[in-house]
Each structure stands twice: as C-alpha cells, then as structure tokens.
C-alpha cells in the first residue's frame, strides 16, 4: 500500500459518499490510494485488491480480454500529462467477474494552494444499462459531491481543480454505451 497521508476529512468523505470514488497518487503509475464501498460494489474488487495498483486493471479481464477504448485512453493520457483540469469520458471496463460495463469516468486533480497536484480524484458510473433519468441523478449526485468536498479540503492545503463538465445529451451517451457493449458481445476475443 502506498505510504501517503490522506487527510481524515477526505477519508470520511469517501467512506460516506453515495457514488463510486477512487483516489490515486500523482507520481509514477498513478497507483490507487483509496476506493470506497460503491467502487467495490460497481467493480467487484475490494480495496485490498486494487489499492497500490493502477486503475487500468479494469480495462481487461483476467484472461486478457479488453475493449478498444482508443478515444478514452487518449483523453485520459492527455489529462494525466497535465492537459485540462478535468476529464469525463465513457470507457469500457470489466468487473472482477469479467462482465463488461461502460464506465462514465470523471477525473479531476486535487491540488495544493501552490498549484501542485496532490491527488487524482475519480468517480465512476455504469452507463451501460442506465436510463437518462439515472444518469441525470448521478450528475446531480456528483455535482453535490464536488460541492461537499471543496470545504472539507480547506485547511489541508488541498483544493479540487475544475468543475463538473456535464454531458449535453445523456440519451446519446447511454445509446453509445449500449452499442459498444453489443459490439463487445459480438466480438468476445477483443
């Protein structure tokens, strides 16, 4: 497990959040420092299985099956190399049991008052089998979480960078997720 001190208010926030959250370090391979119970419910992985590893482990099954994800990977790589304050993109992930899902991944930096990135904050939401009203509810929940995390970080020299970028057409995101999963089901060797 990485040896980084995490402020107790941030730990408490994660433990009590109603949405799936992960926190990663900013150096080297962006190893996970913490995930919450919602993350474990969504992915099937317990914290003890993922802390200290890169979240890309969700991009393939234990037997090597994976999705293309080129556009999402490009966006994530750009974000992780310092381009943009947030990223929000659908990406095909796999649960521990090998079942694919389309994850609407949101990532932001938690920075010091001096502007140095301290952590990578991420939220996950399964849009594969969702309806627009569930995505709208998630957007509201994520917006609320981002509003609540800001004051918790004050006094700990950490700030949330950027804001929630909304999806203009939730129906389109969900429809695309369903097409992506259908293609993956037709070509299980990917």
From TrEMBL:
Indicate the secretion signal residues.
none
Query: Pfam families under this entry?
Result: PAS_9
Recite the UniProt keywords alphabetically.
Chromophore, Flavoprotein, FMN
Listed SUPFAM superfamilies = PYP-like sensor domain (PAS domain) (SSF55785)
Sequence ranges assigned to domain PAS in this UniProt record: 32-83
Q: Which PANTHER family match?
A: PROTEIN TWIN LOV 1 (PTHR47429:SF2)
**Name the UniProt record assigns to this protein:** PAS domain S-box-containing protein
């Amino acid at each position: 497990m990485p040896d980084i001190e995490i402020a107790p208010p941030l730990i408490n926030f994660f433990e009590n959040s109603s949405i799936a959250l992960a926190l990663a370090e900013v150096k080297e391979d962006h190893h996970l420092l913490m995930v919450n119970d919602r993350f474990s419910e969504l992915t099937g992985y317990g914290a003890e299985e993922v802390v200290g590893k890169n979240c890309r482990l969700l991009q393939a099954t234990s037997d090597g099956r994976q999705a293309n994800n080129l556009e999402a990977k490009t966006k994530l790589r750009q974000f992780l190399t310092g381009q943009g304050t947030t990223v929000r993109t659908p990406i095909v992930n796999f649960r521990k049991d090998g079942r694919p899902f389309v994850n609407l991944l949101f990532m932001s930096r938690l920075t010091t008052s001096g502007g140095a990135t301290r952590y990578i904050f991420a939220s996950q939401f399964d849009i594969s089998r969702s309806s627009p009203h569930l995505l709208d509810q998630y957007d509201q929940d994520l917006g609320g979480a981002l509003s609540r995390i800001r004051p918790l970080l004050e006094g700990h020299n950490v700030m949330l960078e950027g804001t929630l970028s909304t999806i203009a057409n939730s129906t389109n995101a969900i429809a695309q997720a369903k097409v992506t999963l259908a293609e993956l089901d037709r070509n299980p060797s990917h």
